[in-house]
Design brief:
four-stranded antiparallel sheet, 2 domains, 11 strands, 133 residues, elongated
Amino acid sequence: MALTKVSGDGLNSAAISTVNSEGGAVTTSVVQGLCKVWINFNASGTIATRDSLNVSSITDEAQGYFQYDFTNAMNNSDYSGSGNAGEGNNNNNRNIQFGDTYSTTALDVNCGDGVGSAVDPSVLCSQIVGDLA
């Protein structure tokens, strides 16, 4: 889809919410399509955030178990997320899943090695899309 027009008044960022396709046949909501929370951090040893958006803190709950607290709350707990984890350059990919806390203000993320053991990876990244409150 080629960007041909962005609708809005140019003053209010909330008003800039749609993009028309070539010929104007399809309109896509830009605001809904944006990532609202993301983080890239080192979960091995002392937690160190490399970069993030809308994450106020991370709690290391146990090996392989982390909680992200959001700076700005999500509108509901029906948002969608994804992520990946690994051990840097040695190609040891890790599995992550969202855990028990799946609320408007926080999310639990669990990381394992694929055979049932919880691990703290050197690289853990995740993203959340949905509506902010």
